[in-house]
Amino acid sequence: MNLAQVLSESFVKYGDKTAIVFEGQGYRFREIDEEIRRRAAWFQKMGVQQGDRIALQLPKGMEFIFLHLAVLSLGAMTLPLNYDYSSEEVAYFLSDSGSSIFITTIQGVSRNRSVLNGLSGMKTFVIDGLSPDGSGPLSSELKKIGAEDPRHYPAQDDDVAMICYTSGTTGKSKGAMITHRNLVSNMRALKESWEWTDRDVLLHVLPLFHIHGLVVALHGGLNAGSTIIMHEKFDPRRTWETVAKERCTLLMAVPTIYHRLLNEWERVKPDLASLRLFISGSAPLSENLFHRFEATTGLRILERYGMTEAGMITSNPIDLPGRKPRSVGYPLPGVRVRVVSEDGEDV
Question: How far apart are CA 10 and CA 346, in angstroms?
């Protein structure tokens, strides 16, 4: 199984249904599939092959999505990078990962110029301007692409799809190598556990360079055939207003976002009649915030647990009575959990 291939099947299945609305502009499933095809053909012309590492340091937006899935369709690996990383961090990630292509913006090149010059054997491409080799911008390069479809999905189950760097809490950030099997099985497990369907409308306010926003929210929404309302940046008032206006059914966020949403509640008091599930992850949800949010909105947050190295691991139940504060629930389908003492003994 190849993640991009599985999602392409969803694109065909849901065709003319709206897949993503990014900052007011809508994209149908079939339109996204076509944009991915064009970029896959462009990558092929650039010589991208199975096993290559392609680093993306781009603002949140559709171009990141198109390029990411095009990379995977050719059997290459995506290295998603925070757009706000310092040049020193970018240099480390590019060098440590062995990336062969670095895709960014004019601003990204300007910010990282000093370190990029010192990385030999890596090509830099600028999507919104001229690249060092004189090619670009991407819109001009795509005009040269014909009707060919090079997506043969050579990478399968145990091949690496993404390299995601950890937060580095115990030392220098390490690149976690995430396989296609991991991504697909996680995606399917969440669809089942959260009863995710094509009738859902997901409000996406998370960054795309992180597992939460990319793997859980974006991949999951596209797989389920949901419509994703995607904001470039989180704003609490706008989030509440969008939930009501777009009749959103799902929101995924971190505890800090839920705290800011509560602070904005009295000024907006949105209609939450459509909302069926608030999901929290990426950091512990305090018991106080869990209870305050439910008391204020009438809806109980579902907390889950995951990590960069493994994806989603556990989740509270979809059934309301089963959701408990200070608990991340039970292992997801396909996941085994082992509890050990500090000495490594089973407890």
Answer: 42
Task: Tell me how far the alpha carbon of residue 76 is from its chain's centroid.
Answer: 17
Measured N-to-C along each axis, helices 236-246 and 255-268 cross at an angle, to the nearest 10 degrees, of 70
Q: What are phi and psi of 99, to 5 degrees?
A: -65, 140
State mean pLDDT over 20-37: 98
Residue carrying the six token digits 């705290």: 259
Q: How confident is the model over 98-135, as pLDDT tens digits?
A: 999 999 999 999 999 888 988 888 999 999 999 988 99
Please name the helix (run of DSSP H) or strand (run of DSSP E) that holds residue 204, with its range, or none: strand 201-204
Inter-CA distances, 139 with 29, 103, 122, 164, Å: 20, 14, 22, 28
Q: How far apart are CA 165 and CA 172, in angstroms?
A: 10
By the 8 A CB rule, do 126 and 148 touch?
Answer: no
pTM above 0.85, yes or no: yes
What is the set of domains in the chain, with CATH numbers?
30-178 (3.40.50.980), 180-331 (3.40.50.12780)
DSSP codes, 49-117: -TT-EEEE---SSHHHHHHHHHHHHTT-EEEE--TT--HHHHHHHHHHHT-SEEEE-HHHHHHHHHHHT
Are 21 and 28 in contact, with CB atoms under 8 Å apart? no
What span, in angstroms and rounded, lies between the C-alpha atoms of 152 and 10?
A: 16
- 101-104, strands of its sheet edge to edge: 123-126, 101-104, 53-56, 77-80, 160-165, 175-179
CB-CB contact of 302 with 315 (8 Å): yes
Q: How far apart are CA 83 and CA 309, in angstroms?
A: 21
Share of the chain above pLDDT 70, in %: 100
